[in-house]
């Protein structure tokens, strides 16, 4: 069964011409930006076009369009709230990542790299696997093909040698290896 719009395509054009200014005024009064109002009205008429078989006749069509526009506005406002929340999360992450001037750490990083270069290959590898790659001693043991106890012993000795080479001017204890990596924010799931 075909609808009135299928039989008379001009009906939709008349419906659009008669109701566009009313719906635009309705949307402008309910959004912060005029561009958003235009988007709301465009979405409203797109829905009307897709659901043209449900369009009532006469003045009821205008009321139906207002109902559609009201739901489109509700979706628009919910999307705005989500955008604000996501924006706040992004600003927080960016502040965390970029709060410090990375150039301030350059001298420390160079000192750490120089000390690492003076270590033996095995000491350097065990420090880098645990410090840079974040592996636990048992995980580093798998990579190196030795026991976890051997890695813990090597790690302890490598840290002591590294402290001797790097000196005490790199910051508080435990800080020396922290300058090797920049914090990477974890994504919330």
Number of discrete helical segments: 8
Would you tell me the overall average pLDDT? 82
The low-pLDDT segments are 1-5, 171-179, 181-189
Through-space gap between termini: 48 Å
Number of strands: 0
Question: What fraction of the residues are assigned to beta strands by DSSP?
Answer: under 5%
Structure classification: mainly alpha
Helical percentage: 55-70%
CA-based shape? rod-shaped
Largest beta-sheet characterization: none
Plain-language structure description:
With 189 residues, the protein is mostly helical. The chain contains eight helices and no strands. It is rod-shaped, with a radius of gyration of 32 Å. It starts with a helix and ends in a 23-residue tail after the last helix. Mean pLDDT is 82; it is low at 1-5, 171-179 and 181-189. Residues 110-161 form the RNA polymerase sigma factor 70 region 4 type domain. Residues 15-80 form the RNA polymerase sigma-70 region domain. This is DNA-directed RNA polymerase sigma-70 factor.
